[in-house]
Write a structure and sequence with these properties.
The structure is a single chain. This protein is an alpha+beta fold. It has a single domain, classed as 6-pyruvoyl tetrahydropterin synthase/QueD (Tetrahydropterin Synthase, Chain A, 2-Layer Sandwich). The chain is built from 4 helices and 5 strands; from the N terminus they run ββαβααββα. It is elongated, with a radius of gyration of 20 Å.
């Protein structure tokens, strides 16, 4: 049986732990955050069910890497959410993708690259030195497209 305990003394900064101890290492770390959105689209030049207007509940997963800062964070998960909400989701959620995205066939393969590029552009505006490592775009729970930094890099 697991024994539960109540914290007796809450750790205090500058008393129980010093500011310089908050950063534990100097390694690159990948953090990941996922989001969902609902959207409609149809495919051109495709002979199958997806040539007709239909919708999906998509899932997007971002992998972002960087060196931890002075308190041990790569990037605040809230910052990733702000970027998603203000710079990417507005073009996707409850939208007709053929209308709101740049001219393209709205395949998962095309969309994942567009989402990757939008996040990459937004991260360049951040003060930390984070970089996008991958984006996965699930069109269904078992089908996804992925864009990776090594495939997208213009370096």
């Amino acid at each position: 049986m697991y024994e539960f305990s109540i914290v007796e003394k809450l750790q205090k900064l500058e008393e129980d732990i010093q500011r310089h101890e908050l950063k534990y290492h100097q390694k690159r770390v990948l953090v990941s955050k996922s989001f969902h959105f609902d959207a409609a689209h149809h495919l051109h030049c495709y002979e199958g069910k997806c040539k007709n207007l239909h919708g999906h509940t998509y899932q997007v997963i971002f992998g972002i890497s960087g060196m931890v800062d002075e308190i041990g964070l790569v990037i605040d998960f809230g910052t990733i959410k702000e970027i998603w909400k203000s710079e990417i989701e507005i073009f996707l959620d409850h939208r007709y993708l053929n209308e709101t995205l740049p001219k393209m066939n709205t395949t998962a393969e095309n969309m994942v690259v567009w989402i990757y590029e939008k996040m990459e552009e937004a991260l360049k505006k951040q003060t930390n030195d984070c970089r996008i490592e991958f984006v996965q775009l699930y069109e269904t729970p078992t089908s996804y497209a992925e864009a990776r930094r090594e495939w997208m890099s213009h370096e």
